[in-house]
Amino acid sequence: MEMRCYRRQLGISYKDHTTNEEVRRRVENAIGPHVDLLTIVRQRKLKRYGHITRSSGLAKTIMQGTVNGGRRRERQKKRWDDNIREWTGFELRNTLRKAEDREEWKAVVRRSSAAP
């Protein structure tokens, strides 16, 4: 999605056979160094996860899946905790423990956001 927006803004058609690396280089020349969209989403999602984990509200109950009620017939292909595990490299119980300490969780977010 991001590359499609860049190509449209720069007026580059897919018929031009311009590589994504070339498009990224042109964008960087036009606007300077920037953070890609996926990194921003990853940072915000990890920060929100830490915030919710430290709280004691309804959002925490829902995220941990401890809400009473029926199950849906189909489940999502990828859940929040799947992304958290993938991005941090920790098991869910370890992420819950690390998120309790705010400074440690900030370090985890920085490390995870720096990874490609």
From TrEMBL:
Keywords: Endonuclease, Hydrolase, Nuclease. GO terms for molecular function: endonuclease activity. This is Endonuclease-reverse transcriptase. It comes from Plakobranchus ocellatus. The lineage of its organism: Eukaryota, Metazoa, Spiralia, Lophotrochozoa, Mollusca.
